Amino acid sequence: MSTETEDQKGHPRGLDRSWHLAQTPLQVDLTELEFALMRAFEAFGRWQTECLASVIGLAASGPENAMLHIIRMHDRPKSIKDLARLSNREDIPNMQYSLRKLVGAGLVERKGSGRSGVTYSVTEKGRDVTDEYAAVRSALLVKAVQGVPNMGRRLEEASSTLDLMTGIYEHVARSAATHRRFTDD
């Protein structure tokens, strides 16, 4: 239902939506998805930080909070390799720093050694904190999305799209790394 003031996709006429990353309509849509993804990532990180801060006085980043919940997932110990795979991360030194922070806060415990394999699991304090986090999450986030029409379907479609884009980004990142030009600088 376009009006005289909108283009075929319902965007206001007169707006220049193209730029150096986006010349065609598909490129514009892709770029807008990328910017929405960046904004969502930052908002999600702030949400995780604030939700955890409402439960415990710990200055933890969004990724540290996510790591805590991944460790708690299925109540099974996780190795750093498991954590990297489940979170699609490669920055092991940063992950180790975050793990030390969570261990220091008494939320996570480290078991094992280098030879037998180190695993991480939540402590009783970590279990209590993640349970309280889940309660705050339900009271705020779940309540906020319940009233959005067709939210279940929208979330399912968004998850599928993000999974698809993750695979595409992984593929093109490997291609870019394979064909990277090196300079003598």
Automatic annotation (TrEMBL):
One Pfam family named in its UniProt record: HTH_27
Source taxon at top rank: Bacteria
Annotated HTH marR-type domain ranges read 63-126
Q: Which InterPro entries match?
A: HTH_MarR-typ (IPR000835), Trans_reg_MarR_HTH (IPR014601), WH-like_DNA-bd_sf (IPR036388), WH_DNA-bd_sf (IPR036390)
Q: Please report the name of this protein according to its UniProt entry.
A: HTH marR-type domain-containing protein
Which species? Rhizobium dioscoreae
Taxonomic lineage per UniProt?
Bacteria, Pseudomonadati, Pseudomonadota, Alphaproteobacteria, Hyphomicrobiales
